[in-house]
């Protein structure tokens, strides 16, 4: 093993999906997994195989689709979980089973209701079983950073002897400060030596997930678990883009350490995650926020114009953000459009390019200028998501300032053309009621969000909805159009299609 290589373990598809409202369907997960492979992550934690049939299906399909990255499934220290994980990843070129058990006093007493020696015994048996199914096993001590250090050493040593090749020390609740995690990881690294890779998985409850991950790396950890945009449970996880760019930018601190991340795929990966989950990074988010490379102060603007490094420690181009985004319009041809797709990181078939080009031409007829973000959203909207059981064809919507609104709507359902109308308390309400009438499925709207994709009065509207059908949990739907009402209809129909796809 290269002692200077930092293994990037991406858990966007597992821990990231645990961010409230961030659920993804199988097609979206596969698409994101392929982008993570293009990004150059070493390990993709594709999900929790035992959690649901949907998770198992997604892991199994990702295992078959990915060839360069290692595909991993999480599993509790239970035989049924480990068996499911092994079955889900068996088709992977490179596979890993990641099994875990809690090791902190509070978890052992109140959650597991087990004595410390029982926990060690369970850990050993689980690692041994996982090792019989897969030659790459990772063992995690849940809540390791609130665990007794002596017990932590004992169980890590036992897991390695049982066959674990990676030992993960997660700060499950984001509790430790950098000096504390430095000391803890330092002791574990000294204990383990070269017998296994030491990994860290830091949560952001106190806003220190990234700095704690970097401190752990300097203390000897050689795998870091993280997510795109830092999404994840509660306050989120350590952000992949922040860790990678810190290592690259601060060579004075980290050399000769390095990652194999393709830096120019950072921004496209960030935008894909935001598009799929509907969770936008905050504007001032480091590296990928929309203000990350923006300068408003006159002093800053003057300095950057004279010499970029006066106020920029990295360049937007480093992460794949093309600042000269306005290049296409209604007179642009297929060749220019194809070149733009390539520059944005898309690899589409000729058939897909033709579909995307026709969508682009229709968009260019509706708005004066087409920006990179317009194209990203257009392509993601067309090729990422559930099968289009229903498709919006025609929408007519009328409303007045008293709140009364009416909608006439036509949908395509397989080979049928279906139309109906509805009244509502506003245009959006009327549209959703019309869709319910046509489909015969009533949905409950939990969240509605609209944003401009790019700039200008004619900017594309991106509508994100969360809809609950039959009380089975909220489903995300996204719609894109220059007409906000039409984008709303598309978003609701997208959620409906995802629901129907999951029921098959």
SSE topology:
Layout: E1 7-10, H1 26-39, E2 43-48, H2 53-65, E3 70-76, H3 79-89, E4 95-102, H4 105-112, H5 116-133, E5 137-142, H6 149-162, E6 166-171, H7 178-192, E7 197-202, H8 209-218, E8 223-226, H9 240-249, H10 251-254, H11 266-277, H12 298-306, H13 334-343, H14 350-366, H15 372-383, E9 390-399, E10 404-413, E11 416-425, H16 427-439, E12 443-452, E13 461-469, E14 474-481, H17 484-503
Parallel strand pairs: 1-2, 1-8, 2-3, 3-4, 4-5, 5-6, 6-7, 7-8
Antiparallel strand pairs: 9-10, 10-11, 12-13, 13-14
Quick overview of this protein structure:
With 504 residues, the protein is α/β, with parallel strands linked by helices. The chain is built from 17 helices and 14 strands.
Structure description:
- This protein is an alpha/beta fold and 504 residues long.
- It folds into four domains: 7-277, Aldolase class I (TIM Barrel); 293-321, no CATH class; 324-383; 390-503, Double Stranded RNA Binding Domain (2-Layer Sandwich), CATH 3.30.160.270.
- 42% of the residues lie in helices and 21% in strands.
- The chain is built from 17 helices and 14 strands.
- The chain has an eight-stranded parallel barrel with strand order 1-2-3-4-5-6-7-8, surrounded by eight helices. Strands 9-10-11 form a three-stranded antiparallel β-sheet, with helices on one face. The chain has a three-stranded antiparallel β-sheet with strand order 12-13-14.
- Helix 14 (350-366) crosses helix 15 (372-383).
- The radius of gyration is 24 Å and the shape is globular.
- The mean pLDDT is 90.
């Amino acid at each position: 093993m290269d002692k200077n290589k930092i293994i990037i373990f991406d858990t966007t598809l597992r821990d990231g999906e645990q961010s409230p409202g961030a659920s993804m369907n199988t097609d979206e997960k596969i698409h994101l997994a392929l982008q993570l492979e293009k990004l150059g992550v070493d390990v993709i934690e594709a999900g929790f195989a035992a959690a649901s049939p949907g998770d198992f299906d997604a892991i199994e399909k990702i295992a078959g689709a990915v060839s360069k990255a290692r595909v991993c499934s999480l599993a509790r220290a239970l035989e049924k979980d480990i068996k499911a994980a092994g079955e889900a990843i068996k088709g992977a070129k490179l596979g890993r089973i990641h099994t875990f058990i809690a090791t902190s006093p509070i978890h052992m007493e109140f959650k597991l209701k087990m004595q410390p020696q029982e926990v060690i015994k369970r850990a050993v048996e689980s690692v041994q079983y996982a090792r019989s199914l897969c030659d790459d096993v990772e063992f995690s001590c849940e809540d390791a950073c609130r665990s007794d250090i002596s017990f932590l050493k004992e169980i890590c040593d036992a897991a390695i002897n049982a066959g674990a090749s990676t030992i993960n020390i997660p700060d499950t609740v984001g509790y430790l400060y950098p000096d504390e995690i430095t000391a803890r990881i330092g002791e574990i690294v000294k204990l383990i030596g070269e017998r296994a890779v030491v990994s860290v998985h830091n949560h952001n409850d106190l806003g220190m997930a990234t700095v704690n991950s970097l401190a752990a790396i300097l203390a000897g950890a050689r795998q870091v678990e993280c997510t795109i945009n830092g999404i994840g449970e509660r306050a989120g996880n350590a952000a992949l883009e922040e860790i990678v760019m810190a290592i690259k930018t601060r060579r004075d601190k980290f050399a000769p350490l390095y990652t194999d991340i393709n830096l120019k795929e950072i921004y496209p990966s960030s935008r894909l995650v935001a598009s799929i989950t509907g969770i936008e990074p905050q504007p001032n988010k480091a590296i990928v926020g929309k203000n990350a490379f923006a300068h408003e102060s006159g002093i800053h603007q003057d300095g950057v114009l004279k010499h970029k490094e006066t106020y920029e420690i990295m360049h937007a181009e480093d992460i794949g953000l093309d600042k000269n985004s306005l290049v296409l319009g209604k007179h642009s041809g297929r060749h220019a459009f194809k070149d733009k797709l390539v520059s944005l990181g898309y690899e589409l078939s000729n058939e897909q390019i033709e579909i995307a080009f026709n969508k682009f031409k229709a968009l260019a007829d509706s708005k004066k200028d087409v920006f990179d973000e317009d194209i990203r959203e257009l392509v993601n909207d067309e090729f990422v998501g559930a099968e289009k059981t229903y498709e919006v064809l025609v929408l007519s919507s009328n409303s007045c300032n008293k709140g009364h609104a009416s909608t006439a709507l036509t949908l395509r359902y397989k080979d049928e053309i279906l139309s109906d109308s509805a009244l509502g308390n506003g245009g959006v309400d009327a549209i959703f009621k019309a869709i319910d009438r046509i489909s015969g499925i009533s949905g409950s709207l939990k969240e509605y969000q609209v944003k401009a994709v790019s700039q200008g009065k004619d900017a594309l509207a991106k509508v994100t909805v969360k809809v609950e059908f039959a009380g089975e949990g909220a489903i995300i739907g996204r719609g894109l159009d220059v007409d906000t009402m039409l984008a709303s209809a598309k978003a609701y129909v997208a959620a409906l299609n995802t629901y129907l796809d999951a029921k098959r």
